[in-house]
Structure formats: C-alpha cells, structure tokens
Amino acid sequence: MTRKTEIYCDGGVIGRNPSKMGVTWAWCLVENDDLIRWDSGWVEPADAAQSPLTNNFSELYAAVRAVIDNPDAKVLFTDSQITLYRMTRSKKFNGIPNWLRRKALKIRGMPVKLLAGHPTFKELEQGFADRNRNPVSKWNVFCDLKCQEAAKDFQAALRRKADNQGTQNKGDLK
Fold it and tell me: Which tens digit of pLDDT belongs to each residue from 53-79?
C-alpha cells in the first residue's frame, strides 16, 4: 500500500487582525488519514521582528513551519489562498518580514492544495464547501482548534506574567 503523507496547517490572530499581541499557528502530519504528529504555538511581534502581525503572516508561518518540520510529506494543505500562492509561485510578500519570505522561497517545491476553511458539519460530511466547492478536511478543523488552544495558552501565559509582576510589587506596599 502506498503511503499517503499529508500536512495540514492553519494560522490565526490573537485578538483583532492585525494584532499587536501575536498570532497562532498549527500543523498536523497525517498518513493514510491517521494523525501521526502535530505541533502548535504562537508568535509574538518581538519574535517576528514585526508589529503588528497579520493573519497572512500566521498562515504563511504555519505553512513554512509545517514543511520545515515534515520535509518528507507529499502535499501541504492550507485554507489560505495567498499562502498557497506564496508557497508555490508568487513573488509578492507584502507585509511579510524578509526572514519568513526567504524561508518560504527556500522550501518551495512541495505541492500545495487549497481547502475551504471553517466548514460546517454538513460540508465536512459531503467533503466540500457549498460556497466555493473547495474540498474541506477534518484535519484543517483540527489545526484551527489547535490555533484556538494556542491563543488561550498565550492569554493564560500573559495573565501568569501579570500576576507574577503583581506579586513582586506587593512587597513594596507599606
């Protein structure tokens, strides 16, 4: 049996787009429709050397990270048309820092397929989106959920940091 190894990726914004707080990313490696591994996280503006960060940044970051982390995969799926273009043929990288543009250009070559994002249960059942007839995938939904979890983790980390700073300052009160 031929192994069908695919990567799905998604990105998201923490707060409003563009975000001064940061963005989230996720990918999952799937083989013959079985989840092999996944990763997710967030990027803050200081880490990206750019502020604010946009959804387009997060989607491209997720795709680049997915391909770098899984170079033997056969195809990459994204729900971002601009990311598909940037990963395959576009020379336009407006709003993307040079370091990420260079990485995207360096790893071009893996086939990239476009999915419809945020499908309904009905669309997942039928396998395509009613609005544009693009395919949909439970793995794209999985990545979207991992982005949402990463945003919650980011916000919890911010609260812990604020709480710790508050605790340090309590000793100054007399």
Answer: 999 999 999 999 999 999 999 999 999
